[in-house]
Amino acid sequence: MSIMRKALICYGSRPELIKLSPLYHKLRLSGNITPILCDTGQHKDLLPPHMNSLNLKADVQLNVMRKGQSLDQLMAQLFAQLPEVFQKFHPDITIVQGDTASALACAIIARKKQCPIAHIEAGLRTYDHNSPFPEEIYRQNISKLAQWHFCPTQTAQQNLLREGYEPEAIFITGNTSVDMILDMQKKLTDERIMSSGPKIRKPFFLITLHRRESQGAPLAAIIASLLEFAHSRPEFDFIFPLHPNPASSDMIKALLGNADNIRLITPLAYPEFVQLMSDAFAIITDSGGIQEEAPALNTPVIVIRNKTERAEGVENGCLRLAGTDRNSILYELNLLIDDKAHYKAMQDAPNPFGDGKASERITRHLIDIIERNFPENAPPENIPAE
User: Looking at the structure, do residues 37 and 75 belong to the same domain, yes or no?
Assistant: First the structure.
């Protein structure tokens, strides 16, 4: 009889949790791997509704956030608290997702503890450390630490191959975010989950803005462009869920709080947010995850960034990279409304980021990896003490 191997899954943010959720459930059903959920507590107030709607419960809860905390201080808290998790659970493998502080810190501690690392959503690149900052730095360093790389697309795979990573350690799987969005869409359509999000009568744009590199003057300029557009299009509403980071949300409230057709709302649980994405005329965003999720719902996306690590969506036509300049933003937004053929082409463009089976593929690969790397019935090696 083979030993059940333990996989530590570390997450700190809402996007990480959403993308790891379908993989967690697949692993639980595998009969080979026991997943252990570690919540670092970076979105402590936001995650409980998502945990409930995704049928998840953390096995360990850290407390890394402090008021007014810098990135350096956040990393220091992660480095102080994560080693105890490894000492308690002795995982056989560590799974991290994407390009967050929690993913990088967990990968560094895992490597120090000689626990092999699987990186989900590997190989995304802009090759500009300032865009997005600090995510581009984080994900390149996670790649250096990981033993296995699960790439959403062939482009991501090619990035890693050019950087010299071994082909046999790289797997193209699609992105787990597409698994999650398609599953949630089906539940909403079947009315097994009823959305209780905001009631909207007009066609609407959904807006999300939170990038760290946009804070301050760049964000103010972007907001001015969106406000000008909203004033010019009274036939549309603009729904704007605010990010919990006050560095962006305070400015947004100050600049947009009195606009007639712009509605600032608190963050929503995942089913309600999926419903908004599905119902939106289009989405205006600087988010990475929405660039993958919205095309699965056939909702056009205008990306308010100068560079994207998801260039496949731009190439396929489901995303448009508007940059951060006023003229380019207004051009792209007006084009959506004024050119019906252009809008339809964006709606119908294929989603290059997955087919809803990424978690299934990753689970099969992980089971195979464990069977090849861990002798039958051999107990896990002791994790070195501090």
Answer: yes
Question: Looking at residue 247, what is its pLDDT?
Answer: 66
Supply the mean pLDDT for the chain: 90
Do 15 and 102 fall within a single domain? yes
Indicate whether 278 belongs to any domain.
yes
Strands (E), the chain: 5-11, 33-39, 60-61, 93-97, 117-120, 148-151, 170-172, 204-208, 237-241, 262-265, 282-285, 301-303, 319-321
Q: How far apart are the first and last CA of the chain?
A: 33
Domain that holds residue 123: 5-174+357-373
Whether this prediction's pTM lies above 0.85 is answered by yes
Whether the per-residue pLDDT at 198 is higher than 70: the answer is no
Rounded distance between C-alpha atoms, residue 265 and residue 260, angstroms: 14
- The H or E element spanning position 123 is none
C-alpha to C-alpha distance for 239 and 363, rounded to whole angstroms: 37
Tell me the pLDDT tens digit for each residue of 310-359.
999 999 999 999 999 999 999 999 999 999 999 999 999 999 999 999 99
CB contact set of 344 (below 8 Å; sequence gap of 6+): none
Does residue 188 lie within any of the structural domains?
A: no
pLDDT band at 108 (very low <50, low <70, confident <90, very high): very high
Chain CA centroid to CA 97, Å: 8
The number of CA neighbours under 13 Å toward the Cβ of 85 is: 32
- By annotation, the residues acting in catalysis are 99, 121, 135, 210, 212, 243
Say if residue 342 is in the same domain as residue 365: no
Provide the CATH number for the domain around residue 40.
3.40.50.2000
User: CA 68 → CA 42, 71, 74, 335, distances in Å?
Assistant: 13, 10, 10, 40
Q: How many domains does the chain have?
A: 2
103 confidence band (pLDDT: 50, 70, 90): very high
Q: In what order do the strands lie in the sheet with 33-39?
A: 60-61, 33-39, 5-11, 93-97, 117-120, 148-151, 170-172
* pLDDT tens sequence across 48-63: 667 777 889 999 999 8
- C-alpha torsion sign, points 215, 219, 220, 221: positive
Which of 149, 139, 163, 138 has its CA nearest to residue 116? 149
In a domain, 193, yes or no: no
Same domain, 33 and 132: yes
190 sits in the region (left: phi over 0; alpha: psi -120 to 50; else beta) called: alpha
Residue 306 φ then ψ, to 5°: -85, -25
